[in-house]
Amino acid sequence: MAGAGPSRIIAVRHGESEANLAHREAGDRPLVYGLGDDEVRLTALGRRQSAALGRLLAALPGGERPEAVWCSPYLRARETWEVAKDDWGAGLPVAVDERLRDQEQGAFDRLNPAAVRERFPEEAARREAVGGYAYRPPGGESLADVVTRVRAFVRDLDGPAGGRPVLIVAHDSVVLALRHVLETGADAAPHAGPPFVPVLNASVSVWRAVEGSFELVRFNDVGHLA
C-alpha cells in the first residue's frame, strides 16, 4: 500500500449483542430472531465490553492510538464505538461505510444454525460441497463476497488514512475478511480463505504497515476484557 495508507489497522468486533445472547441461550433449539441484522442492539455485557475497549484505546502509546475511525452502519457496531469513545474521551469523528456491514445471510436472516438445518436441510450438503469460504446462502453473501468489498474498502483508505493508525469497528466476518485481504495477495484462491475461527465479541486485531504490506501484530485478542 502507498505511503498515504494506514500506518496501523486496529479492527474490532462489536460487543455482545442481544442476538448473540439469544442465539447462545437457544443452543441447539431452532430460533427465529425478531429483529433484522441492522437493528440489533448491545446487551449490558456488550456495553461493558465496549467500555473496556475504550480504556484499552486510551492506554495505547501515541504512535499506536487511532487517529481516524471507520464503522459498520449496523446499530450494534455504532453503539460499540459510541460507548468506547465515551470511555476513551476521544473526540474523533466516525465515518460509516456500508462495505463494513456484516455478511448478508439472505434466506437465513434471523435464523440460528438449528433453524437453518430444519428449514433448509439441502443447504448443508451444498455448503460442504463448495466450502465455507465460497458458500453463498440463498439470496445472501459468501465470505468471498465480503472479502471483495472489504478489499475495495482497504484500497480506498489510501489517502484518507493519511499514514495514521486507524480503527475499524465492525463484525466477525469483516475481521476475517481483513485478515485475508491484508495477509494474502489480491489473487489468492478461494481455498486460501481465512479459517473459520470464532472472532470474539469486542476482540481486537492489529496489523502494522511494514515496507508496503501489513504484518499481523495480534489477532482476536480479548485480554482487555479480563
Automatic annotation (TrEMBL):
Pfam families: His_Phos_1 (PF00300)
InterPro entries: His_Pase_superF_clade-1, His_PPase_superfam, Phosphogly_mut1
One biological process term in Gene Ontology: glycolytic process
Keywords associated with the record: Glycolysis, Isomerase
Binding site for substrate: R13, H14, G15, E16, S17, E18, A19, N20, R76
Annotated coiled-coil segments of the chain: none
CDD domains the UniProt entry points to: HP_PGM_like
Recorded GO MF terms: phosphoglycerate mutase activity
UniProt EC number: 5.4.2.11
Family: Belongs to the phosphoglycerate mutase family. BPG-dependent PGAM subfamily.
Protein name as catalogued: phosphoglycerate mutase (2,3-diphosphoglycerate-dependent)
